[in-house]
Amino acid sequence: MDTITPGAFALLAAAALLVGFSKTSVSGANTISLAVFAAVLPAKESTGVLLPLLIVGDICAVLVYRRHAHWPTLWRLFPAVAVGVLAGTAFLAFADDGAVRTSIGAILLAMSAMTYWRRRKAAGVPAGTDGEPGADEAPGTGRGGRLKARGYGVLGGFTTMVANAGGPVMSLYLLSAGFRKLGFLGTSAWFFLIVNTSKVPFSVGLGLIDGPSLLLDAVLVLFVVPGALLGRALAHRINQNLFDQLVLAATVVGGVQLLLLG
């Protein structure tokens, strides 16, 4: 990994702060981090550097929301996610850096579109109480529910392996399944801790995680934890609509930039 300039390190540090912040507050803010890491570092290597930082953020999120996970939903998703992760691993094994950068840019734009659609759909859903779906809202039951879980699971596994960008896919699935705030955060926290941890052997095998990348992570992790603490403190105070709009706009810009660089 080439020498990182002070300006590039400042960008990576800010992106690491956003990783922690997004895990405990505004889901989706780390899509900006994906674009920053892929623009500053070689695209393939950026996924390996970012993964341990995401795991640290996941641990912070689980510590805060661990009691609110809906485990039947998680067990329903995991087999399909495994298929997607294997497909993403195969893609990374053969794709060059330009193809990976272009793919990350395309994934970010697609995820931005999905997130925008999710927010528009959510605007028409009556507000409910915090927590997981009630007995009459059990997600993933029935043939249609199982097929939906498999589809989202494969897509989520592929996008999280290739670009660490499974967040919008998971958010869209949980929203469509009827999750409320705390159930959403708790289920998402456990999902990504388990999935991201399972990706480590594949990333090591592909050479994406090595000594130099872990050395950089050891420094950047100092920004993830404060970001998570800041997110927890501001979770109930932030103007989420405005922030989500800014996140979407910045993600679109980052995705277009990566497509042009690819």
TrEMBL record:
Its main location: membrane. InterPro entries: TM_pro_TauE-like, TSUP. It holds the Pfam family TauE. The keyword Magnesium does not apply. Coiled coil: none annotated. Keywords: Cell membrane, Membrane, Transmembrane, Transmembrane helix, Transport. The chain crosses the membrane at residues 48-65, 77-94, 100-117, 152-176, 214-235, 241-261. The keyword Transmembrane applies. It is a multi-pass membrane protein. It comes from the Bacteria. It is found in: Cell membrane. Belongs to the 4-toluene sulfonate uptake permease (TSUP) (TC 2.A.102) family. This is Probable membrane transporter protein. The lineage of its organism: Bacteria, Bacillati, Actinomycetota, Actinomycetes, Kitasatosporales.
